[in-house]
Amino acid sequence: MRPKTLNFEQLVKQNKQELLDDERSIQQIEMRLEKKHKDLLKKSKHKQIQ
Q1: How far apart are CA 13 and CA 34, in angstroms?
Q2: ∠18-20-26 over CA atoms, to 5°?
Q3: How many helices and strands in the chain, by DSSP H and E?
Q4: Model's pTM, two decimal places?
Q5: Which is more confident, 3 or 33?
């Protein structure tokens, strides 16, 4: 069975939505990385103090 063909406007709309979804995912990953980095810095500072 052939996939449904989309017109140009539908493709643009779909691609735009996918980009927005990707951007949200990237932001979530960046936030998790930043938190892990901060946690690691805290741990290393705490170890230096001891």
Answers
A1: 32
A2: 100
A3: 1, 0
A4: 0.69
A5: 33
